Amino acid sequence: MFDQYRDPLLRYSVSFGVPVPDGEEIVQEVFLSLFRHLQLGRSRQNLRGWIFRVAHNLTLKQRYANKRLPAATQEDADIAAQRTDPRPNPEDACSDAQRQQRLLAVVRALPDVDQSCLRMRAEGLHYREIAGALGISLGSVSMSIARSLGKLIRADQG
């Protein structure tokens, strides 16, 4: 599971503005918590949603402890991108930079719940898993994602 979820959890944590080293610590804490959870014989249902919920909570705690702004620094984003999602073609990366900045500005302007829903969905979680991880209704998740995607589509077309 660590190999499968390390990079998505790191991206998720860094997207909240924590530095990459703190994100790596959070990922380690998530899997330590998972080990304890399983060792105590607790539920094995929806472990993916469970680990993202733990990562979410630990990231918010770390962000509060760091007293940082929600947006990661460009250096942290560059390091995370190099480690987790290297681009095969540098020309494509250059041509997409302006579009990416515009869309990131839209995402950063979204309310925290909408950002969290969008991030978790981007990591492949299902609506039910997102609802469980954030403690909101399934309908709220659906509306949040639809509203967020609408804003992103309008920004991309404009």
UniProtKB/TrEMBL annotation:
Keywords for this protein: DNA-binding, Sigma factor, Transcription, Transcription regulation
User: Which stretches of sequence are listed as region Disordered?
Assistant: 75-94
Keyword Transcription on entry: yes
Q: Which SUPFAM superfamilies match?
A: Sigma2 domain of RNA polymerase sigma factors, Sigma3 and sigma4 domains of RNA polymerase sigma factors
- Which Pfam families does the record associate with it? Sigma70_r2 (PF04542), Sigma70_r4_2 (PF08281)
Cross-referenced NCBIfam families, in alphabetical order? sigma70-ECF
This chain belongs to the protein called: RNA polymerase sigma-70 factor (ECF subfamily)
Q: Which organism is the protein's source?
A: Silvibacterium bohemicum
